[in-house]
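hey m, so remember when u said the tokens were messed up on ur end? i reran from scratch. heres the input so u can diff it against urs
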Amino acid sequence: MFNAHSMDVIAIDGPAGSGKSTVARDLAMRLGRFHLDTGALYRALTWKALDQKADLEDAAALLALLGCTALGFEGDGRILVDGVDRSKEIRTPEVTRQIYRIAEKGEVRARLRPIQRALVSGRSAVAEGRDMGSVVFPDARWKFYLDGDESVRAERRWRELVPGNPSLTREEVLTELKDRDAHDTQRAAAPLVCPPGAVRIDTTALSIEDVIEKIEKIVQRKG
């Protein structure tokens, strides 16, 4: 069985807009840990599939595409696809709308799992996504699940996306967030759940700093 204890992993899960990406990034920076943004990996594959006009419903084609794709992270958080910085391209609204079609395929998730584990091998890491504590790092020493009111999460998501897409409305983001929540929680492969043993944090009324301080205290208390 895969064991994450030796790799010193802090696993953070949660739905879109819960703050997990910002919390994970800032926490990793504060603690001097590697930040594994697994959502960026799924976004990168989604972007390449769209760029190559691959059939997003053809799992075999997606696996073949993944097999000839090099994914990596730079120390400053940039995501590389085949050695090229694609950090901006993977955050487009079209990628956001289509990513669930990649993420819901069990064959793709299974192929990405060892890649995710290899990226943190030998490192102290903060890993964030939607199946970190439940599937990818089930024995992680620390597990957290961030959640929040959907309207608040949608507002956060809108503020994050609107600079790159000024015509985007709050209503559009709320609708997409609800759809993504439904896809993530109901998919057959590694659905979004609060992992066993995870500390659940409602971020609705909390700032990023508040959440980070809560997590830091628990990490320090557990040594």
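this time it looks ok to me. Residues 5-212 form a domain with the Rossmann fold fold (CATH 3.40.50.300). if urs says something different then somethings off w ur setup not the seq
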